[in-house]
Amino acid sequence: MARIAIVGAGAIGGVVASLLQATGQHQLVLCVRRQIGPLVVEQDGVAATIDATVLTRPEEAKPVDWVMIATKAYDAEAAARWLDGLCSAGAAVAVLQNGVEHRERFAPYIAKEHIVPVIVDCPAERTSSAQGERILQRGPMSLRVPDTMLGREFVNLFAGSPADAAAVDDWTTVAWKKLCHNTVGALPALLLKPAGIVRDQAIGEVALDMLRECIAVGRAEGAVLHDSFADEVLDACRRSNPDSINSLLADRMAGRPMETAARNGAIVRKGRIHGIPTPANAMAVALLEALAAK
Ligand SMILES: NC(=O)c1ccc[n+]([C@@H]2O[C@H](COP(=O)([O-])OP(=O)(O)OC[C@H]3O[C@@H](n4cnc5c(N)ncnc54)[C@H](OP(=O)(O)O)[C@@H]3O)[C@@H](O)[C@H]2O)c1
To answer: Is the dihedral of CA 29, 78, 175, 92 positive or negative?
Structure first.
């Protein structure tokens, strides 16, 4: 049994809560920033209501064994305000966010050796209403962590649940492969068009430029990525549902901030460190940031 706090009861926080609840092993605490009604997670027509203590103020936080950060990356600073109370007895902190800089993002707030970076793959979305929070889980949950002692402890938390949680030798490659898929997402967000826009020949060429930059920088970071991966990712994007809306686009359409800095911005920053030019991603970042400022 572990006491587990989930910071951010959105799409991923909700699915993680339902998986941890399915183990029947843990006490859950939901750390949210506003009063919420019941949190219901639905998959394939089966709904589960999360049974958890709900806290709305970081000052109320008591020590737990594990913290799962499931906010958007741009909310990291505010999410970290929960850590003083939750981690006062040495809790480990799993960061379930996009990008490749999980440790860097939380290093100002918690010792790096307590941080477990998690690559999350799970199509999920949420709707908030006066009746509560409803999360729709559209597919299986995959969680990948580095194969360390803490990583393996994280995986064990999900034992007995349907989560596909695993500790992997080459987490860096997994993370950069995911970032390759994410980098292309900037194009639908810029164009305010669903995923099918990458089927366009010229847009596909831009996507390939962005992907080749991501691959070059990822390799410099130690990821094993072949040249052919750029075409593989573009092909996968072109085969996906043309009407689907990625999270950058959904955030832009809803007038929310976007995870540009954690996604394309990470490629540009890391590229600079390695002396690798990333003009296509840099342009995407500049345009998305200008649009967000507007
Ligand atoms: N959704 C997916 O399908 C998916 C798949 C793979 C990876 N991811 C990644 O997973 C991460 C989480 O994404 P998501 O889709 O779950 O986002 P989300 O649905 O927007 O949920 C984020 C939650 O964090 C809450 N929050 C923000 N600041 C907070 C704070 N200071 N204290 C407590 N709660 C706070 C938000 O509260 P409010 O309700 O008040 O806004 C919201 O409920 C992102 O990095 C995303 O890229 C998502």
So the answer is: negative
Instruction: Please give the distance, rounded to the nearest whole angstrom, from the Cα atom of residue 128 to the centre of ligand 1.
Output: 12
178 catalytically annotated:
yes
Considering 178, 193, 270, 294, which one is annotated as catalytic?
Answer: 178
106: CA distance to ligand 1 center in Å? 16
> 247 CB under 6 A from ligand 1?
yes
Q: Give the residue among 177, 176, 194 at the shortest CA–CA distance from 185.
A: 194
Examine the pLDDT at 141 and tell me if it is beyond 90.
yes
**CA dihedral (144, 150, 152, 153) positive or negative:** negative
Give the domain-ending residue among 136, 168, 200. 168
Domain that holds residue 256: 172-293
Q: Answer whether 11 contacts ligand 1 (Cβ < 6 A).
A: yes
> What CATH number is given to the structural domain containing 202?
1.10.1040.10
Ligand 1 pocket residue status of 238, Cβ below 6 Å = no
- For 186, the token pair is 């900037």
Shared domain check, 217 and 155: no
pLDDT tens digit sequence for 198-255:
999 999 999 999 999 999 999 999 999 999 999 999 999 999 999 999 999 999 999 9
Shared-domain flag, residues 177 and 238: yes
